[in-house]
Amino acid sequence: MEPCARREIVGRAGFRNLPESARAWGWRAAYDGAMSASPPAVAPFARNRFLQVLVAVYVAVWIALAIAPSYRSDWLLENLLVFAFAAALAATHRRFVFSNVSWLLIALFLTLHAVGAHSTYSETPVGFWLQDAFGWSRNHYDRLVHFAFGALLTYPMREIALRVLRPRPLWGWLLPFFAALSASCAYELIEAWVAWVVSPELGTAYLGTQGDEWDAQRDMTCAFSGALAALLATAGYRRATGHEPWVLLAPHRGRRPRARRSP
Q: Quick one: which of 32, 41, 43, 104 could link to 169 by a disulfide (CB 3.0–4.6 Å)?
């Protein structure tokens, strides 16, 4: 029996409702393999209204936060990687189009980063409000964004792994997890190099250590926790629905035919 036929028989109830004999016969491999290989419905920017609105909203927020930041030099440093990341997304958009869910997650993370860049992470008003509300000893907005890095960007990495690399089911989970950890580590290194080379006098404000000698390690731990939370949420959604989250917010393919007027 072909994997697609097995998937149709399994249906949305998923593998958990199959009898033990069916599981032993290899239904899990067929079910997981078919689910991982099913591509999402995507549309390029020119035909994706959701993506157009999302980009317009983000650009408006970014411009508003770019006006009169607390420290213009630090703001430029914080946005160097954003400029490079945005250029990479624009350059590869025609070759690889993310699902709308991944675009939304990326936009949310970039918005959180833009808020931190406006007033520096160590002086973000939202962080001070959280510090007072929970009695923290420091402004933890930077830790919140590092957690968001793992929580919001791990699924786009999983989407790349599933659609480009087409790994076995287990590696479909491990690859984005390790990629998120590697990216978090690389960011900490690049952040330090940029502070040393470009503007050493802004190093403290740019790095936002706030006197914590273990700041980099704690930031990576937050990213680790966020990545784990994202993958657990993805696994829970797949178990409940039998689909990848990329089916959410899927663009409509083609135009709906107009209804004819009755004579």
A: 32
Residue pair 142/230 in contact by the 8 Å Cβ criterion: no
Cα–Cα distances (Å) from 4 to 8, 15, 26, 217, 235, in that order, read: 6, 14, 14, 45, 21
**b/e map of 167-203 (b: 16 or more CB within 10 Å)?**
eeeeebbebbbebbbebbeebbeebeebbeeeeeebb
Q: State pLDDT tens for residues 194-216.
A: 666 666 555 555 555 555 666 77
How large is the angle between the packed helices 100-119 and 72-92, nearest 10 degrees? 170
Q: What is the mean pLDDT of the chain?
A: 80
Give 136's pLDDT tier (boundaries 50, 70, 90). confident
Those residues with Cβ within 8 angstroms of residue 115's Cβ, 6 or more apart along the chain or in another chain: 65, 124, 126, 141
CB 249 within 8 A of CB 101: yes
Report whether 141 contacts 121 (CB < 8 A): yes
> Please, which residues have CB within 8 angstroms of residue 100's CB and are 6 or more apart in sequence?
42, 48, 50, 51, 54, 248, 249, 250, 251
Amino acid, single-letter form, for residue 148: A
pLDDT digits (tens, 9 = 90+) for 19-65: 444 444 444 443 444 444 467 888 889 999 999 999 999 999 999 99
